[in-house]
Every structure is written in structure tokens, then in C-alpha cells.
Design brief:
single chain, about 525 residues, alpha/beta, Alkaline Phosphatase, subunit A, Immunoglobulin-like, 2 domains, nine-stranded mixed sheet, four-stranded antiparallel sheet, 15 helices, about 30% helix, globular
């Protein structure tokens, strides 16, 4: 049975199939769409890493970042949860911090924390499940997608995964989610594009060489036959990944003093991420989760609004970010890691007895050495509200995504269109972090590419100039940005290059070709006529 036919038969259930391997649970990678190879092939010690922190439940941005310029209104409409003025830590002249979030101030003072105010999307859906899906898929509210934005990003870059993976050049998982089941954000066009470490204690078991029982897939399911061939293939790949992670984790280390294990679930997850990065794992995307932000009740204690559920969560978030960043700095890798938080919505300005209901806009935090620190946008107005009494949006969350993809991962317009499906303006979020990156930018501006003849009928030759020697990946895409084939993948020296491309089997129309190097990307357009 072909992999594609088997996956089509499984449908979305393929995502839910867990494999117990060497003491920890992994999510089965599925196959067969053009996409995840480039991320892994180009991953190296120099590559950039994104760590996405999901704040599940809808974080109350108004009590996280207290509007010092609207205190009278704040105390009037938030009496049951308002933080006393003498307990607020001043961040800027207009923004104060919840006392439990004060650990984030050191990041801000060092220029390693960016605050984006009022992030949301038009016509917010205030269902946890639907709004989370919208943030994960980067869709419009009325648009239902089965792939996630990070899944599509990775899917675009690695067309043949998982066939032939892992291999000598690409030994590591391409994306990892820690502390939960695989989320929609890492789902590709047809396949899950990541691996999960569901149980944090299982990571320690893996590193310590303790094996969990569970048997083979066939033994656990009681099924046999060629339908399990693909599952066995994936299991074998996942087994290799588990052994690789064990090797990397043994090599890696943490240098910062994290909270005691079990006291801060986010710090526990980030500790693993830092250790794997330290050990040299070439994974570019990590997803971690901190849940519990649905604070309808007991957001604060009745007799002390600085304590309660929200205070504990903010303490875990701020301390987790701070110690993780400290660890990255001590390990000498902070320039290659960018952190970002997302939450499905904010909370309403008005309060319940001692909680808050589902809202609309909220803050997004970016942190790390590459960040252009500071505040983007103004404090959300507590008086100029939507008709339903909710906060107005200042920035679409997909503007943040577009900024990260283009400025951090250097995605070009074709790549962005594939991931986000329509254009979004970007925000100035990141700053150049090293001489090497400046050299890479210079090299990118010197790249040229074209094809001749153009238009073509049966064949054409793509010609390009490499300012520096590099591993290169030349791909042919259709007019919608979907990868049709990898024309060439391998090392090429500095100078002029040319590759003949057969076009006899292509229908008339417009096609694109994209050249990805270690220092940037460039694209061209090819017209086929009959």
C-alpha cells in the first residue's frame, strides 16, 4: 500500500497515533508533501531557532501590563482584580508590571524584550478552541484550515520528509513540541511536521537510559498487514530520532540555575530546549505550553489581588523567560534563539466577581538577544472600546508572524504567501546581531538568477551567481508557490552556475524557481508556452 493512499485513508487520525519509544512518547511524522527538507538541510550551529510559548486560556493583558496612563479608569472598572498602585513595578512612564511579572523587567532593561500591544484579528471568535485554531493556522475567522502556520513554513522548506530521514546530513527532528500532544500549529499540508515530548519525566528517563514498555505497533494494536508498513517505517525513524536526542541531551548542559523541577512547568520545558540547543540539536522550531489562563474565577485572591491563579502563571512565565535567556547567554548561543508568546485572546476590561471573561486584543512578547527591545503600539484604551465592551485591535497577529518569518527566517515573498496565504505588513521587531549576519546580507544582495530562453517550450537553463560557496537548494514551484520538484541540492563553489531544466512535461503557464543558500534566498519567474 502506498504511503499517500494510507495517509488518505487515515485522515486526521494519523495525527493522534502515539509511538512509545525508548521511554518517551513521540507523535508520528507523516509523509508526502513537498516541504520539510530545506529547514533540516540548512540547519547548522549558525542557524536560527524559534521557541514559541503558547499561553493557553487567554492571558489577561490588562493586569499583565497595567496602563499607568489610565489608572483612574483601571481602578473603576477592575475593582475586584486591580493591583494596588504601590505594588505596581514601573516599566515605562505609561506601563506598569504586575508584581509577579517583575522578572521580565530585566529582559526589558537589557533590550531583550519587545512588547507588541493590542494584537488580535478582526471579528474575534471568543471560543477557546476556535480562536486557538485561528492563531495556530493563521486563518481568517470564517476560514477553516487543517494546516498550521509553522507546519506550512517547515513543509515549504522540506519537500521529501520523512522519506530518507534521518540521514547523515539531517540527523535531527525538524520541529519539536514539548509538554503536550502535537498541536495544529505544526501540522503541514497533509502531514504532522514535528515530534512531541509529551511527558517531561520521560525525557529524563530517556537520557538516563530507562526504557518504557509498550511493544511494537503491531503488538499494541493487535493488527498486522501491509497497512502497518508505513507506521513501522515512521517508528523506525522515530526510534532513530529518540536515540539522537538521547545522545544530544547527554552532550548538552544547562548553566543557569533553573527553579526546582516541578515548581515551574514552563521553566522545565525551556530547560530541555536549552539543553538540546547546547548539545547541538539542529531543530529550528520548538513549541512549549503554559496553560491555565482562563481566569473566569479566582484570577486573584479576594483579600489580596496581587496573588491568585494569574499571579502564579505570570511568575512562571517571567521567570521561565528570564532563566532561559540567562542560560542561552551562558551557553554562548543567545544570538541564534528567538522566543515568542501567543495566546488565543485577551480578557475583557470589565471584571466578574474576582475574574475576567473572554476578550479580544492582548500583548505578544518577543524576547532574546536578536530582539529590538521596547514597546510597539500604545496602551489599549479602557474607554474607547468595541460595541461589546472589548478592546480594539492595533495589530493583526499575522503581522507578527510575517515579521518573524521574514526578519528571522529570511522568508521571501513566495514563502510568506505560502505560509500566510495573503500579504501582511511587517513590524520592525529584530535587529542585526552579528558581523556574520551583515556579511550574509551583503552576499544576498550580490546574488543574481535568471533563465534562458524565457518563455520556453521544452527546456530552459537557469543561471545564477553565488557570491560565496554554499550548500544550495534550487526548487521549481507552481504559480501558487507549491514546490513541484527539487532541481538541485548540494554544495557549489563561488561563481557562475547553470542548470538545464526540462519543461516538456509542464503545462503552459507561469512558474517560479527559488534558490536557497546558506546566506539567503532569491527567486525568478519562468514562463512555459505551448
Amino acid at each position: 500500500m502506498k504511503r499517500r493512499d494510507f495517509l488518505a485513508g487515515l485522515g486526521s487520525s494519523a495525527l493522534a497515533l502515539p509511538l512509545i519509544l525508548d521511554g518517551f512518547t513521540t507523535q508520528a511524522f507523516a509523509d508526502d508533501s513537498p516541504s520539510l527538507k530545506k529547514v533540516a538541510e540548512l540547519a547548522s550551529a549558525q542557524d536560527r531557532i524559534l521557541v514559541l510559548i503558547q499561553l493557553s486560556g487567554g492571558n489577561d493583558g490588562i493586569n499583565t501590563l497595567i496602563p499607568l496612563d489610565q489608572l483612574s479608569t483601571y481602578y473603576n472598572i477592575r475593582r475586584s482584580v486591580a493591583i494596588p498602585e504601590n505594588r505596581i513595578t514601573r516599566l515605562t512612564s505609561a506601563i506598569g508590571l504586575h508584581p509577579s511579572f517583575v522578572a521580565a523587567k530585566s529582559l526589558f532593561d537589557e533590550g531583550k524584550l519587545a512588547i507588541i500591544n493590542g494584537v488580535s484579528y478582526p471579528n474575534v471568535n471568543q471560543s477557546h478552541f476556535r480562536s486557538t485554531d485561528i492563531w495556530f493556522t493563521a486563518s481568517d475567522p470564517e476560514q477553516y484550515l487543517s494546516s498550521g502556520w509553522l507546519g506550512r513554513f517547515v513543509n515549504y522548506e522540506a519537500p521529501t520528509f520523512p522519506v530518507g530521514y534521518p540521514n547523515d546530513r539531517t540527523p535531527d527532528p525538524l520541529a519539536i513540541e514539548i509538554g503536550g500532544a502535537m498541536s495544529l500549529t505544526l501540522q503541514g499540508n497533509t502531514n504532522a511536521m514535528g515530534m512531541t515530548i509529551r511527558d517531561l519525566s520521560a525525557f529524563e528517563q530517556l537520557v538516563n537510559g530507562q526504557n518504557a514498555t509498550g511493544g511494537s505497533v503491531a503488538q499494541r494494536t493487535g493488527k498486522a498487514g501491509n497497512r502497518l508498513d508505513f507506521i513501522r517505517d515512521v517508528q523506525a525513524q522515530s526510534q532513530k530520532y529518540s536515540l539522537r536526542i538521547k545522545t544530544i541531551a547527554e552532550r548538552g548542559r544547562n548553566q543557569a540555575q533553573y527553579p526546582d523541577k516541578g515548581r515551574n512547568i514552563l521553566a522545565d520545558q525551556l530547560r530541555i530546549v536549552a539543553r538540546l540547543i547546547s548539545g547541538g540539536l539542529q531543530t529550528r522550531v520548538y513549541v512549549v505550553n503554559l496553560g491555565g489562563f482562563d481566569t473566569h474565577w479566582s484570577q486573584t485572591e479576594v483579600n489580596d489581588t496581587t496573588t491568585g491563579i494569574h499571579a502564579g502563571l505570570l511568575s512562571n512565565l517571567a521567570e521561565g523567560m528570564r532563566v532561559f535567556q540567562q542560560d542561552l547567554k551562558l551557553l554562548g548561543v543567545e544570538n541564534k534563539v528567538l522566543g515568542m508568546t501567543i495566546s488565543e485572546f485577551g480578557r475583557r476590561p470589565a471584571t466578574t466577581s474576582n475574574g475576567t471573561d473572554h476578550g479580544t486584543a492582548g500583548p505578544v512578547f518577543l524576547f532574546g538577544a536578536p530582539v529590538r527591545g521596547g514597546v510597539i503600539g500604545i496602551n489599549p484604551s479602557l474607554t474607547d472600546l468595541l460595541p461589546d465592551g472589548n478592546l480594539k485591535m492595533q495589530y493583526d497577529f499575522r503581522q507578527v508572524y510575517a515579521s518573524v518569518l521574514s526578519q528571522w527566517f529570511q522568508a521571501d515573498a513566495t514563502h510568506l504567501n505560502t505560509v500566510l496565504m495573503k500579504p501582511f505588513s511587517t513590524l520592525n521587531l529584530l535587529t542585526t546581531t552579528s558581523v556574520r549576519e551583515e556579511q550574509m546580507l551583503t552576499a544576498t544582495t550580490q546574488m543574481t538568477i535568471s533563465n534562458y530562453p524565457n518563455p520556453c517550450t521544452d527546456q530552459t537553463t537557469i543561471e545564477y551567481v553565488l557570491p560565496r560557496s554554499s550548500n544550495v537548494h534550487l526548487m521549481l514551484l507552481d504559480s501558487r508557490g507549491h514546490i513541484l520538484t527539487m532541481i538541485f541540492s548540494g554544495f557549489q563553489p563561488q561563481g557562475a552556475q547553470s542548470i538545464r531544466v526540462e519543461a516538456a512535461n509542464l503545462a503552459s503557464g507561469v512558474y517560479f524557481y527559488t534558490l536557497r543558500t546558506e546566506y539567503g534566498m532569491i527567486s525568478g519567474q519562468m514562463n512555459v508556452v505551448r
